[in-house]
Amino acid sequence: MTSDGGIKIPSRLPLLLSHEGVLLPGSTVRFSVDSPRNMQLVSQRLLRGTSLKSTIIGVIPNTRDPEHDTDDLPTLHKIGTAGIAVQVVGSNWPKPHYSLLITGLCRFRVSSLLKERPFVLAEVEQLDKLDQYTTPATEGAAAEDEELGELSKKFYQAAVQLLGMLDMSVPVVAKFRRLLDSLPRETLPDVVASMIRTSNKEKLQVLDAVSLEERFKKALPMLTKQIEGLKLLQKTRKMNPDNEKRVLSVRKGGVFPGRQFNLDGEDEEEDGDDAVALEKKVHGANMPDAALRVCLKELKRLKKMPQSMPEYALTRNYLDLMVELPWSKSTKDCLDIRAARTLLDNDHYAMDKLKRRVLEYLAVRQLKTSLKGPILCFVGPPGVGKTSVGRSIARTLGREFHRIALGGVCDQSDIRGHRRTYVGSMPGRIINGLKTVGVNNPVFLLDEVDKLGKSLQGDPAAALLEVLDPEQNHSFTDHYLNVAFDLSQVLFIATANTTATIPPALLDRMEVLQVPGYTQEERVEIAHRHLIPNQLEQHGLTPQQLHIPQETTQDIISRYTREAGVRSLERKIGAICRAVAVKVAEGHRVTKTEDLIPESPTQQGGKTLSSLSLCVIIRAGTFKHKYNQNTMANIETIKYCIQYIVKIVDQVTVLILPPAIYTSTYNGRVIREFLQMTRLIAVLKVCSVAGEKEGRQGSSQGSADSAYQTVRHSSVISQTS
């Protein structure tokens, strides 16, 4: 590699085909390798080589390596850069690939290709001198002619002018200054072009400039463009003396010796003006003076901090959170008591005590505007609607709603946040909730406050003492923010199943409202007002396809849902709706009996449903007996009877069996009862056909009811006989 003419590169070089960036002599660039030939180059040459010569490769820019090894090579760029691989990093996720850190040495020209597989090997001709980077700047100056010396001097002055406009406290700028004083001037075009943000097309022009004079002519306009951009930026910031100096942002990518400057107009707006935009947001957040002083102090530190430092991201995240918090943003309460009473009555049945407390709060707010938010605690069994009442209260007041689940929380940092000295620190759930809703007077629902845990990380119930104390929460201090935030306008509603597990100090800070379970009459009303319409909508059914009488609802409640709330009742109604949905889906067909009736088809989902579709309701308790009520008939017999009914009546849309069929152990009685059920369905069907044929919409139901009573009476007579 050495000769009388200086240091030489090998005459045969393996070539790395790249289309991502341009490697210039004197710069260091990281390349991603995932194509077949480049992967073979790394695995067979760089990883297996043991000498310095094996680490020297050629980088051909503006050339994409084919995705398959069998594809032909594209036309190679004639000028490339010889470089030394200083780092090789491999990974298998999401697919096998390598990352190469290559430092450029000199230019070369491709003379001929020696082989294309497994990687490209070519005969090259060296165009630059390798020893120019080690020669002092004073040597070789006499060899320059007058025109080249003038260009070199002008380029050096422009580079010095650019450095004078930059902030020397940034380590990259200081290093650039040392390189400018130590490197020979013939290397400056390559070094400067690699450090300032330019397009690959402009870098290719510098790479293709073999003569030093042409290289200066290509690089000087790029340097002048950056200077003009900084002058324009300083002119627009002349009113603010703090921004007279340009703090260069740093990006990962083509770097020498460490980072690359960001100086073009587009990135100035993204990164350079970022600090100015953040400062405007800080002043426009209307935060208290104490929080404003902390933000300005952190912002001043951020301006002097390079983006490469890990603390830069932490400080930036902190300032973004401080700006996004609703220090002075609030929603206007809806204080119309009549409208609030109507809305609460429409959303919930019963719960008079809770509704009265909300109306009292609205009445006091009308008389006094500066009222602190109450701390309410709804205590009651599961399923009585404590959480849904909280949502209704937020909708009644016209406020934002946020739910915080406290069940199983055993770390006090979940409430008060983590200190910023820890890695991965974040604010607590209270501050995160305020950031989510965007106002400082929402309705916070602290769900399952009686199920808080306790561990070595602290007691979250003790952390809630400050949050739920009206005398202290006006200056709540989160560990992450480290400044006070006013929570006095927040309406806190806690829910619990029992007060036995709530610490006495925490229970003393809340106004406890007992929510008892519902009576049977209330559950029936809730089912027909809210649960049944909701389940019909969720299952795509209409009231004409499914009708559940109140007697059936009462039997479901008394026999199958022995609970204080209505969750099991809603699940049972959902099971009925699913069974009906199956029948409706199977009943989308036209039968011969429909020809007897004038059709009035309705389009639903692209299918035509005939008006003959009949909704049959078998009331609960029809087949009860006083004998052997603790035994059930044979299951196979019941299945057989059901199949027999389906064979006889093929157009029944809905078939609801009684909740409980108590029979004797004799199969004969079971068959007799199902035959009576079959006669009932047949009579109902005939009455429905007759009613539609005569054009009387309401008579079919009346006929069906009379037929039901007739069959019911005959059933009793037959049993008695």
UniProtKB/TrEMBL annotation:
Where does this protein have compositionally biased stretches of type Polar residues? Answer: 697-721
**What keywords appear on the UniProt entry?**
ATP-binding, Hydrolase, Nucleotide-binding, Protease, Serine protease
Q: Which GO terms describe its molecular function?
A: ATP binding; ATP hydrolysis activity; ATP-dependent peptidase activity; serine-type endopeptidase activity
**Keyword Nucleotide-binding listed:** yes
SMART domains (alphabetical): AAA (SM00382), LON (SM00464)
InterPro entries recorded for this chain?
AAA+_ATPase, ATPase_AAA_core, Lon_bac/euk-typ, Lon_lid, Lon_Prtase, Lon_prtase_N, Lon_prtase_N_sf, P-loop_NTPase
Residues that span the membrane, as ranges:
none
Region named Disordered: 694-721
Where is the signal peptide, in residue numbers?
A: none
Q: Name one GO biological process term.
A: protein catabolic process
Which PANTHER family does the entry mention? ATP DEPENDENT LON PROTEASE FAMILY MEMBER (PTHR10046)
Output this protein's name.
Lon peptidase 2, peroxisomal
To which species is this protein native? Sparus aurata (Gilthead sea bream)
